[in-house]
Design a protein that fits this description.
By secondary structure, the chain is mostly helical. About 85% of the residues lie in helices and about 5% in strands. A two-stranded parallel sheet has the order 1-2. The longest helix is centred in the last third of the chain and has 105 residues. It is elongated, with a radius of gyration of 44 Å.
Length: about 290
């Protein structure tokens, strides 16, 4: 689990890094879908169908043996009261060894290193070798820098269809298969001429794709520059607005503080006048009494 987790992190980091570099230098990245390729290789499908027949035969054999064991256990339960302890133990031992044999047979056919695993590997290996050769040719002819397998353990969180070269790989596999079926020199020469024309067409397409990629890269660069310029203008306007808003708030605060100071001064003066009038009134009252 730790190894897979580390592989995932490294792969995502590599993809992020290469995507950044690709935007800057036009690095080409492609991928294949091995499952899709296998589904469309006739030889593999025929051999896979034969293997599936074997698998079904093995399953039928195992099911028959399991049914036989169930019958043995059922008979023992029905006859238990009529049997001696030694006979019961002997038949239970027979059932145990029979179950063990079935388990060993299951492991032999379907275990981690069983016949199914080994035959699948032998089935896939030749196609994988051909795919590897085809990928090398495509990468060299079309100048790909990285090609990944979408169906492998490496996780691809997103993959645009325009980077899928699976059909190109299939075309090369089918071409190799046809080459093996040819017998006469005339047929081989005809195929070679057709392959030469295809190679020239692929080169033209590759050149056009490369020019298109360069134009896209230049366009993306211009868009990034324009975006950066717009962001800079927007940031300057925002800063100016924030500064103006801060000045207005400061003026409002000063005005409010000034009004509050005047109110406090008036209230203080009113309180002082009221106190003076009260003292004067008290003095007059004292004088009239005397």
């Amino acid at each position: 689990m730790k190894t897979k987790g580390l592989l995932f992190v490294v792969t995502i980091s590599l993809l992020c890094l290469t995507s950044t570099i690709q935007a800057q230098k036009g690095i080409r990245i492609g991928y294949i879908d091995m499952d899709y390729i296998l589904e469309n290789v006739a030889e593999y499908n025929e051999a896979s169908a034969d293997l599936e027949k074997k698998v079904q035969k093995w399953k039928v054999e195992i099911e028959a043996e399991l049914k036989n064991v169930d019958e043995m256990r059922k008979d023992l339960n029905n006859e238990r009261v009529l049997l001696t302890k030694e006979l019961i133990e002997e038949r239970e031992e027979d059932i145990f060894f029979k179950e063990k044999e079935i388990l060993e047979y299951q492991q032999k056919r379907f275990g981690p290193n069983g016949d199914l695993f080994l035959q699948k590997r032998r089935l896939v290996q030749p196609v994988q070798d051909q795919v590897f050769v085809a990928v090398q040719e495509i990468a060299k002819n079309k100048r790909y820098d990285f090609i990944f397998d979408k169906s492998a353990d490496i996780v691809m969180l997103y993959s645009a269809d325009r980077y899928d070269i699976s059909d190109q790989v299939l075309m090369r596999l089918n071409r190799a298969s046809k080459r093996k079926q040819l017998t006469t020199k005339k047929e081989k020469k005809s195929l070679e001429r057709a392959e030469q024309r295809n190679a020239e067409q692929e080169k033209e397409i590759s050149d056009r794709e490369r020019a298109t990629q360069q134009r896209m890269t230049e366009r993306e660069r211009l868009l990034e520059e324009r975006k950066a310029e717009r962001d800079s203008i927007r940031a300057a306007k925002k800063k100016e607005f924030e500064e103006r808003r801060a000045r207005l708030l400061e003026l409002q605060k000063r005005k409010k503080d000034s009004i509050n100071a005047l109110r406090e001064q008036k209230e203080k003066l009113r309180t002082t006048n009221t106190s003076s009038e009260s003292e004067e009134k008290d003095t007059k009252n004292e004088a009239s009494k005397n």
